[in-house]
Write a structure and sequence with these properties.
Length: about 425
């Protein structure tokens, strides 16, 4: 007895009709698979919020008494995206429904994404709520069910998006971030072995040692390179001060008659987004090294830009807050966070003059393959965890985990945290703060 009931309710009676739907659900006489739209009359939710505010001091009591409604005989897990992440609008995860999970043939496909807070009328009916660190202009839910999981989503650097308010120290049930010890895997890249198994990145990564010598095919390919280093960059002044590191390195390279070709807003060369393919081809054919410098320094914050050199037979010179041995095999890169400019310039010059030495950087090709961790893949991880982890109390000392040794923020950040604090005391929904990058 399965019946698809698509309810499009745009009227003052939506609440009444929803009550009827709920009775149907409780009586188990109908199986509602999908309620496509549930649009309460303008102001309904606002009115509810105001009512709740009046009860502010009794909210804990109300929460304790909350019982999950009896559900339809489906095991669908409803995931609410609390605020749309502005920089991820195009990614599959942020498409509503189950498309992402079906597309990637995930093991678990019984998750349903939505950005519509009123889809189930009561926010407590959602199985999970995603809170994106980039979005702090919507105030958080007032009522919370002990059955649902609050999930912290962090794809942007903790240094640019610190979490400051003490209330978050035990707030989220699960973390879904680039940090490698997150509950749900969210790194920008994956390392596979030659059989296609995902082996990294990991906190305690163990690399094959020793690695086999670089193949003749790759050696031959490397012989045509003629230029020292490239850098594609558009953000010229960063918190991590990578521009200073690059400038220092340029100075040292000059002593060897070498230079860095800078493409983008911060340099003289042009590589438009539409021509990225051509630029990467140039990188592969012409350049020995690539500057994979992160714009901010935070633990495990290694973005997909490191894949440019890795996927294009170029050696990455890395700079960031990560312990790169979690991400890259030994001997495959140069860490500008550990060496000074003159040491790096010397290593580069030696490698450029000695093809045998340069080829050593590519031994990893015998054992590993790098890939971008697609958003769809990440959606699978989320649905897997929601199906396998039933109960998870929040991480205490969350801020220490996310901010990592940087709990003492600057005055500007403290000011912002005050703004956020006032936001959480119910500013109008249209209130916005622009991101601080
Ligand atoms: C649901 O069941 C109750 C009692 O079992 C009954 O009074 C009510 O009419 C039923 N509602 C519907 C919509 O069938
Ligand atoms: C809050 O709860 C207390 C005791 O449970 C009750 O006396 C009081 O009337 C409640 N306040 C409101 C606004 O409902
Ligand atoms: C999806 O996975 C199932 C089993 O896991 C497999 O039988 C099927 O061929 C896969 N479909 C696609 C399109 O990959
Ligand atoms: C970096 O990670 C490697 C491997 O995971 C570990 O052996 C090493 O101790 C770490 N280094 C630091 C400074 O934490
Ligand atoms: C850059 O070079 C200057 C002068 O040699 C040095 O003082 C500074 O520490 C260097 N900065 C970085 C980030 O390497
Ligand atoms: C770079 O580091 C090496 C080794 O620690 C040191 O001998 C050298 O003086 C340093 N160079 C600069 C410019 O700081
Ligand atoms: C989520 O965390 C909160 C706060 O620690 C806790 O009360 C709640 O029971 C947890 N929910 C689940 C489903 O584990
Ligand atoms: C954070 O601080 C602790 C102790 O002060 C230190 O052991 C640890 O290495 C630091 N972590 C990072 C990523 O700097
Ligand atoms: C935090 O920073 C402020 C200003 O920079 C300083 O006065 C204070 O001592 C610092 N606190 C800690 C715990 O480091």
């Amino acid at each position: 007895m399965s019946k698809i009931l698509k309810a499009v309710l745009i009227s003052a009676y939506s609440t009444v009709v929803f009550q009827l739907l709920k009775t149907l659900i409780v009586n188990n006489t109908e199986e509602i698979i999908e309620i496509e739209y549930m649009i309460p009359t303008p102001g309904t939710l606002k009115k509810m919020e105001w009512e709740l505010r009046k009860l502010k001091n009794n909210i804990t009591a109300i929460s304790m008494n909350f019982k999950m409604p009896k559900r339809l005989p489906t095991d669908l897990k409803y995931i609410l995206k609390w605020t749309q992440a502005f920089s991820h609008y195009d990614s599959p995860i942020f498409k509503n429904g189950q498309e992402a999970l079906l597309k990637y043939n995930c093991t678990y496909r019984n998750c349903y994404f939505t950005g519509d807070k009123s889809l189930l009328l009561d926010i407590r009916y959602f199985d999970a709520i995603l809170f994106d660190v980039e979005n702090y202009w919507d105030y958080n839910p007032i009522l919370r069910s002990p059955h649902q999981k609050y999930i912290f989503v962090g794809l942007e650097s903790a240094d640019n998006f610190p979490v400051i308010l003490p209330k978050y120290d035990s707030y989220y049930n699960l973390t879904w971030t680039y940090k490698l010890d997150s509950d749900i895997f969210g790194a920008y890249l994956i390392v596979l072995d030659k059989k296609g198994n995902i082996v990294g990145p990991k906190v305690n990564m163990e690399w094959i040692n020793p690695m086999l010598p670089t193949s003749d095919n790759i050696r031959k390919k490397l012989l045509v390179k003629r230029k020292a280093a490239a850098w594609f960059v558009s953000n010229c002044k960063t918190k991590g001060r990578r521009e200073v590191v690059a400038k220092n390195l340029s100075k040292e390279l000059l002593k060897y008659g070498l230079s860095i070709d800078i493409y983008g807003w911060c340099g003289k060369l042009i590589c438009s987004k539409d021509h990225m393919y051509d630029c990467l081809e140039d990188l592969e054919n012409d350049y020995y090294f690539y500057l994979a410098f992160e714009n901010s320094l935070a633990e495990d914050y290694v973005t997909e830009k490191i894949l440019y050199p890795l996927l294009h037979y170029t050696v990455p010179i890395v700079y960031g807050g990560a312990n790169y041995s979690r991400f890259l095999p030994p001997g495959s890169y140069i860490d500008a966070g550990k060496l000074n400019a003159s040491q790096i310039a010397s290593l580069m010059s030696q490698a450029i003059m000695n093809p045998k030495l340069y080829a050593e950087y590519f031994r990893w090709h015998n054992h590993y393959v790098y890939k971008e961790a697609t958003e769809v893949m990440k959606a699978c991880n989320l649905c897997n965890v929601l199906n396998t982890i039933k109960v998870k109390t929040s991480r205490t000392k969350f801020r220490k985990w996310w901010n990592v040794n940087k709990t003492n923020r600057t005055a500007a950040e403290a000011r912002r945290s005050e703004d956020i604090a006032s936001l959480h005391s119910y500013q109008p929904a249209h209130w916005k703060i622009t991101a601080a990058d």
